[in-house]
TrEMBL record:
InterPro entries reported for this sequence: ATP_grasp_subdomain_1, PEP-util_enz_mobile_dom, PEP_synth, PEP_util_AS, PEP_util_C, PEP_util_CS, Phosphohistidine_dom_sf, PPDK_AMP/ATP-bd
Limits of the PEP-utilising enzyme C-terminal domain: 475-776
Biological processes annotated in GO: gluconeogenesis
Function of the protein: Catalyzes the phosphorylation of pyruvate to phosphoenolpyruvate.
Source organism: Deinococcus ficus
Protein name, UniProt field: Phosphoenolpyruvate synthase
Amino acid sequence: MDMIRAFETLRMTDVEIVGGKNASIGEMIQGLAGAGVRVPGGFATTADAFRLFLQENQIEQKIGDRLSALDVSDVQALTEAGREIRGWVEQAALPAPLEQAIREAYAAMGEGGVEPDVAVRSSATAEDLPEASFAGQQETFLNVRGIEAVLRHVRLVFASLYNDRAISYRVHQGFSHSEVALSAGVQRMVRTDLGVSGVAFTLDTESGFRDAVFVTSSYGLGEMVVQGAVNPDEFFVYKPALGQGKKAVLRRTRGSKQKKMIYAPEGGVQTVDVAEDERAAFSLNDEDLTELARQCVTIENHYGRPMDIEWGKDGRDGLIYILQARPETVQSRAGRTLERFTLTGQGEVLVEGRAVGSRIGAGVVRVVKDLSQMSSVQDGDVLVADMTDPDWEPVMKRASAIVTNRGGRTCHAAIIAREMGIPAVVGTGNATRELESGQEVTVSCAEGDTGYVYAGRLDYDLDRVELDAMPPVGMKIMMNVASPDRAFSFAALPNEGVGLARVEFICSNVIGVHPRALLDYPDVPADVKAQIEEKTAGYASPRDFFREKLAEGVASIAAAFAPKPVIVRLSDFKSNEYAHLIGGPAYEPTEENPMIGFRGASRYRSEDFRDAFALECAAMKEVRDEMGLTNVQLMIPFVRTVDEGRRILEILREHGLVQGENGLKVIMMCEVPSNAILADQFLDLFDGFSIGSNDLTQLTLALDRDSGLVADMFDEQNEAVLALMGMAIRAAKAKGKYIGICGQGPSDHPALAQWLMDQGIDSVSLNPDSVLSTWLHLAGEQPGA
């Protein structure tokens, strides 16, 4: 009977011997070292050794009897039973053959007589099966040094099989307590206390998008990220770009990273504050991210399924190591039925944080300060806490939603919440201060990466769609997308690409600063300078901040829908909208009617704005050339004359965006009546038209669409508007050029979408919330149907 097994002798076929976690470590050491995946070595105790331990100490039957009568929904009884059983295990002696084997294996890990520092990890024999995550159900102990400490922590790991959360989790997952054994993994420490660490998933955890690696990262030992005790940095890395050797980092979000866990002088670990300059910087650079993502994709390919991976960067040698890997258990099991929650009610936003899942929940707030208050949570309550760890699992399932001050989207609590289908908003920073027990709230994770807690119980809709059962439609249905955060989930809807990607959302919500103020930095007013410095922390310069954030936003949308076309409309802010950005009032004129003023193409060719437009062009060139997202097409808004259109194409060429080069298409918004009237001449220059029904209606009927006084006359289906649309469609069809529509009209009026289809338009681009209804409407009313 083997008492221990060296990691390098293990494969995934040994799960019953050493549990899923340890078997996976051995599998990677044996199978992936040659592919550049670095995994620290060590050894694992066996399930036979654990069973011998229980038998020799005559506690196996006692444990079985104690658990058989337990109702795990009774939190008090669960706590008492768990404490008693753990006491029996911790006081028991290790069998002599096991103790001797551990002593010999640990001594062999030392170099030059130095006792190594190790992690002692738990690995349940039912752990990390594809159907259940078992995330964090048993304990991990870090910076354990010396044989007596190792032996003591092996017993503590054995006892952790009977943590309250582990007992409860096994019951809910349908596992018998007696069929689960524990293996202790003793693994050489990676010095992440001097570096950084975190968690990576080889898909987007919220949408299930498979072409990205999602990485969370923070300073120090990884338990802070895993436990949800810190708000980490978040990154998305695009897998196809990795394979092509292109720039692969899609998106970065800086976390607060206020604390880190390091070695304590007397052994074990301690938590300390992170220095201000480290908080302001990203914890990983692009080179490290690319290397980490490469190792993660190698692991995913080896296992043939999405994976949940803990990793660390050693602060001494600067290398990335994989600490453990398990199957991802939520999105990889999701079927082809799409559930879409849409908030329809409105309310005051009380707090916001990172969204876990894509659902909406509502209920009565229950602020819980520590585990002793868990019994106060009733079915349907909104659980609010500073942070939750897996110890909270028995009560989490009662909640309609969970809100925490601390934590990221890859911590154990987030994984459990996702698995249970409970919406959670983590890392709010202030939930326990702003929310009070007894008040009613709605928790929405249906609005992208940011989750919101609203006052009151708000109405919402839930649509379920069988994606494989969508009927055919006689034209392409594309989507209007503004938020990069929501692109991955929108891409799961039936679609033929993006007919309008709006950069204004990125410029206002992500960048938030007038581009000329960024160009003029530091020669700007003191208050503007301070705001710019806060916004651009972690970037080489304000100019780089603008280019990279715009490129990231566009790339996120382009990657989500690739290889389908993504038509990116370059900025179309009006002067009053630009004035609302940080630093904006100093650069913008006061116009009587900004709707027909300094906007669109006229702004691009203006001496006042040309340098700012050059930043936009640089971002688009980065997305297409450096990231390889050549499905991005460009669209020019509000072109008043043919000469202006010609001049804009020249400016694009000056900035390296050459029509036809590397497949680049340049589309023009058809939204000024002159565009339709002189359609032949405009289409000689551009690769197609996208009708902007909002502005075309405004300018055809001489209606200011911002004026409520004439709003009742605004009608995209007016005969004059339809006549101009018809002219544009016929001209494009005659020239074999693309013709679509991206205005609001077809989203609001299915009859208009039907008319456009009858006219032979190539595509309609709809708001995501109207894609399904309009699709089904058109499928039932196609010509000849």
